[in-house]
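Good morning,

Attaching, inline, the backbone tokens for the sequence recovery test we're adding to the shared suite. The designed sequence is right after.
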């Protein structure tokens, strides 16, 4: 997941009194929950994916290996079928090498990574450093023409909350536009994490890479460089080699347990299989890949076949702009009226406090009914906050009921997209609890005798985007023009 402004607080505030009924022993949900919270292979699967294959950037051999791994896993779990489905990703971006060295007045290297979506330098480039503060409009105005031909150093605040992270994402677009306009040779951005920790996430979210090279550098040496630059001319050399290419096809993994009564109605349980690759993508999002596998395993082991079909979908291309889930909604356009709900997990092993129903109050009781065996999961635990930044989003734009797990982001935040996102950091007790919740919700949605919740129209989605303030986020993530033009979600009105 790449954002969610108030994830950190909303779930807690909205948890109401328990409306839970005691589970009957014959209730399959109780059996699913009990099994999921026991000694399942969830932990072993997380390690297997993350340690055997490692980081999984869409467009690389590693993500292909992960797709093949997931297909083999699902085939072994007794689902009715498994296949891969291809979809287009607008452009290829894979990091190669990134070197940043201060060359004057002293020589020292700064640990660095390239920022996804940004340009290579085409050989090493050296230039004087211009300090542009936090890269706000006033900072660029202050340095004026002196930025032209220089390498701009951008300061950051330490990231401590989800709101900080969200702000970091929302600053990226304006910063890149200002840098291009000022004609800098490149940007050196200070890491928002202390003690040398590096991470990698996009500076551009749209359909074309940036023409400006960007290196993210360790926080502490960046401060030294700024101190020197404030006292005379400082120079820096950057050399960045990324593999950048045109649009290409990537693959999602889709598996199904056919429904026993209305197999042409569907519930989707999804998580993204791809990751960035400084760490091994455990909290983001290997553990929830393992969760999806474990829910499929649970249905099979307990011999459960709900009324509707359940699809287990492992998306790729999420980190580049949720292109995998966009590809799914595109390919399955004709079935979307018959999607009863899409459930997404994408905040690592953080404790699930409810589900985001993204601006649709009528869905709160749908979730609460499905989760009635859990105390504290009544309608008021289901947040109305609109969620952009993970694989629910193109379903939301398509009017399909979508439910994103509202998880405690605190344990996941500091390792987010960082070198430290490894399977040892995962809380497997919470992950197993989450797997039980996922299984219960999916069963509840797929086995409910009630008609499936209504799919929204384009007009209703438009109103929802305004009501939930998702419009601003979509502009920040460069999705708004695609929505208006009908390239994502519903086709545009004539
Ligand atoms: Zn994620």
């Amino acid at each position: 997941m790449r954002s969610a402004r108030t994830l950190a607080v909303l779930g807690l505030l909205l948890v109401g009194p328990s409306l839970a009924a005691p589970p009957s022993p014959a209730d399959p949900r109780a059996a699913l929950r009990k099994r999921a919270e026991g000694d399942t292979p969830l932990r072993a699967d997380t390690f297997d994916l993350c340690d055997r294959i490692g980081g999984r950037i869409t467009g690389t051999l590693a993500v292909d290996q992960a797709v093949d791994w997931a297909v083999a896993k699902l085939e072994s779990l007794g689902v009715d079928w498994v296949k891969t489905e291809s979809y287009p990703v607008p452009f290829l971006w894979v990091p190669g090498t990134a070197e940043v060295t201060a060359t004057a007045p002293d020589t020292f290297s700064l640990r660095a990574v390239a920022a996804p979506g940004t340009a290579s330098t085409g050989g090493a480039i050296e230039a004087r450093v211009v300090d542009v503060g936090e890269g706000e409009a006033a900072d660029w105005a202050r340095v004026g023409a002196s930025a032209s031909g220089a390498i701009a150093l951008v300061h950051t605040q330490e990231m401590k909350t989800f709101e900080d992270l969200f702000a970091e994402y929302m600053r990226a677009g304006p910063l890149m536009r200002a840098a291009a306009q000022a004609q800098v040779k490149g940007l050196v951005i200070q890491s928002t994490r202390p003690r040398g920790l590096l991470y990698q996430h996009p500076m551009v979210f749209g359909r074309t890479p940036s023409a400006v090279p960007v290196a993210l550098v360790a926080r502490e040496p960046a401060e030294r460089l700024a101190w020197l630059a404030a006292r005379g001319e400082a120079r820096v050399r950057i050399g960045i080699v990324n593999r950048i290419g045109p649009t290409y096809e990537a693959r999602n993994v889709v598996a199904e347990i056919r429904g026993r009564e209305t197999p042409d109605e569907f519930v989707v349980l999804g998580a993204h299989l791809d990751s960035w690759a400084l760490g091994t993508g455990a909290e983001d999002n290997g553990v929830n890949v393992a969760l999806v596998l474990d829910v499929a395993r649970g249905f099979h082991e307990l011999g459960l076949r709900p009324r509707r079909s359940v699809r287990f979908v492992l998306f790729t291309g999420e980190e580049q702009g949720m292109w995998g889930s966009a590809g799914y909604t595109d390919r399955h356009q004709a079935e979307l009226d018959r999607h009863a709900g899409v459930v997404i997990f994408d905040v690592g092993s953080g404790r699930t406090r409810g589900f985001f129903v993204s601006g649709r109050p009528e869905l709160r009781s749908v979730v609460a009914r499905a989760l009635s065996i859990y105390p504290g999961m009544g309608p008021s635990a289901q947040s109305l906050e609109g969620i952009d930044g993970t694989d629910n989003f193109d379903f939301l734009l398509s009017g399909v009921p979508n439910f994103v797990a509202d998880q405690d982001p605190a344990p996941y935040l500091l390792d987010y997209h960082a070198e430290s996102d490894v399977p040892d950091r995962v809380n497997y007790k919470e992950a197993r609890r989450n797997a039980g919740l996922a299984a219960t919700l999916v069963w509840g949605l797929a086995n409910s005798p009630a008609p499936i919740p209504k799919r929204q129209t384009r007009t209703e989605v438009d109103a929802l985007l305004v009501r939930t303030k998702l419009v601003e986020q979509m502009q920040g993530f460069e999705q708004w023009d695609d929505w208006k033009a009908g390239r994502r979600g519903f086709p545009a009105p004539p």
